[in-house]
Prior knowledge:
The protein is α+β, with helices and mostly antiparallel strands.
Amino acid sequence: MKIAILGGGTAGFIAAAHLTKTEPKAELLHIYDSRIPTIGVGEGTTPRFPQWLKHTTGLDFADLQEHCGATLKTGTRFEGWGTDGQTFYNRFQPTRLIGFHFDASKVVGLIAEHVHAQYIDARVVSLDTTDAGALVALESGATLHCDYVLDARGFPKSAQTDGSSDDDVIQMDWIPTGRAILRRLPASDLSGVTRAVARPHGWIFQIPLNGTTSCGYLFNSDLNSDDEVEADFSAFLNNEKISEWEERGALSYPNFLRRDLFDGRVFSIGNAASFIEPLEATSIGASILQVRAAQRWIADSEPNTANDTAATAGWNRAMRSYVLRNSLFVAWHYACGSRWDTPFWDLARSSMERARNSEDARPHLQQMNAFVDAGRALPGLSLAGYDDQESWDREVLPLLTLYEPFGNFSELNFAQIGHGMGYYNTTQSGAPAYVNAPQG
């Protein structure tokens, strides 16, 4: 069996390493253009990544700490969000779970050492599916026939639209940001958490790495210019007594989801499949889930048989559900606004209303209500204070009522965000999560 992985970013190398481990008899081709640089910003992960990394490569935190500037992550600290702008945490639950912060470009190099595939340095000019497989056409004029392809080449052109409709892509406009200005700061005393600070034009993240801090300001370019955001970014840093930083440029990103991530032969993964602003660090976790699901399909299928369209449709529904639910949880963070009364936060507070108007999101909002209500009954703000697993098992575990996640998130995440932003103080018990979002 011949399998091609397209793309040399994080998702591409995750796919190549995973298939190296799980499909040792397959002929693997890893195709990417070395002329295309990797965006080397600091990344945060959910606990899914450390678990995948250890199982697939044998690498652990000590390896990433030595080679990638990694630090441990227990969750995210929110500052200025919600009705009263209090500081609160969304900590990984149970407390034994841990994530990482790291330099993304360096992690790619480390994972690459655990990939056994034929590397082809080339630009892919076309990718076509046939009844017998997939055809990968290269800039050189060569065409490769493969049984399956995992496409991790980044944002598709159809996702980067001017707002016009495209039946192939779901534009998740309930996420209010779409552009980021990036800076690298000196090392800080921030430890164990990603910091998310509400600002007039959006929010600022800080990711602590060994020896440096990755920092960015996320905003909506339809509401604010780069110059306006740059000025507020600098004012924030100066107020924190940070006077030196390295400009890392700016980038725009679409919050989108391919309607079909798999056509029977080609799997879209990573940013080629979907993207959600990095508020809850879902991108790498989504890539791992997509790669695992693709590998299971490949392992359970006979490549010479015709595509089972019903099974393919089911696969796509499951992947869409995961991403849409993650996006709705992220959008819910904005429901109570912030300490800032600005055009950005006016737009942000209406995020759930925009989701309610989406035929794709609406069915998942109905399911989300159960998680919102379950979170109401939990001691949200105190959950971040549990440091030992034994106490958590004794005092928190018996309180749980739901035993499956909403996308990547449990009732414990809903409890921490809902209580932290003041949502439960401004809504009636049993009120739908997406109706009449409270005005902070």
